């Protein structure tokens, strides 16, 4: 496996590439048809640009299949890389979309971890969350 420096998700993020099998383990840089998680508050707004640069570098590789840190095997990595790049480009044009994306993801994961909420509990939960 070849270790590739692919910052974006974190400053020290790496991906692993098997040149013979043309297989990439991309961690949290991108997922199937979407961008991976970015923590703008911890990593800074430059993480969007770093992610795009990392995606650009990966797009030059011949990748047959990829695996992200979350979700199913990625059968067509170039399509997923392009989708991630498009999402990041939108965020650069409208940075407020990053925050809404983060809130939706955090809340979705909270629902999973807590096995849902009663409807009457949602407002109180959200209003007491620092990230919201």
Describe the structure.
The structure is a single chain. The chain is α+β, with helices and mostly antiparallel strands and about 130 residues long. Helix content is about 45%, strand content about 15%. The protein is built from five helices and six strands, in the order βββββααβααα. The strands form two sheets. The protein has a four-stranded mixed beta sheet, with no helix packed on it. Strand 1 and strand 2 form a beta hairpin. Helix 2 runs antiparallel to helix 3. The longest helix is centred in the last third of the chain and has 18 residues. The chain is globular and about 55 Å long.
- Which class of secondary structure composition applies to the elements? alpha+beta
The CATH architecture term of the largest domain is 4-Layer Sandwich
In DSSP terms (H or I, runs of 4 or more residues), the helix count works out at: 5
Distance between the termini: 40 Å
CATH class of the largest domain: Alpha Beta
Helical percentage = 40-55%
For the report, how would you describe the main beta sheet?
Answer: 4 strands, mixed
**Relevant CATH superfamily of the largest domain:** Ribonuclease Z/Hydroxyacylglutathione hydrolase-like
The total of beta strands comes to 6
Report strand %.
Answer: 15-25%
Overall pLDDT confidence: 88
Shape: globular
Radius of gyration computed on alpha carbons: 16 Å
Low-confidence stretches: none
CATH structural fold name of the largest domain: Metallo-beta-lactamase, Chain A
H/E element order: EEEEEHHEHHH
Strand order of the largest sheet: 1-2-3-6
């Amino acid at each position: 496996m070849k270790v590739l420096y692919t910052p974006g998700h974190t400053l020290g993020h790496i991906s692993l590439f098997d040149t013979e099998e043309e297989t990439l383990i991309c961690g949290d840089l991108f997922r199937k048809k979407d961008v991976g998680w970015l923590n703008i508050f911890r990593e800074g707004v430059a993480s969007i640009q770093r992610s795009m640069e990392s995606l650009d570098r990966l797009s030059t590789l011949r990748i047959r299949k990829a695996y992200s840190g979350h979700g199913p095997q990625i059968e067509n990595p170039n399509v997923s890389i392009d989708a991630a790049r498009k999402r990041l480009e939108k965020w650069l044009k409208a940075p407020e979309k990053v925050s809404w994306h983060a809130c939706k993801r955090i809340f979705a994961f909270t629902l999973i971890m807590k096995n849902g909420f009663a409807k009457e509990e949602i407002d109180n939960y959200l209003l007491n969350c620092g990230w919201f």
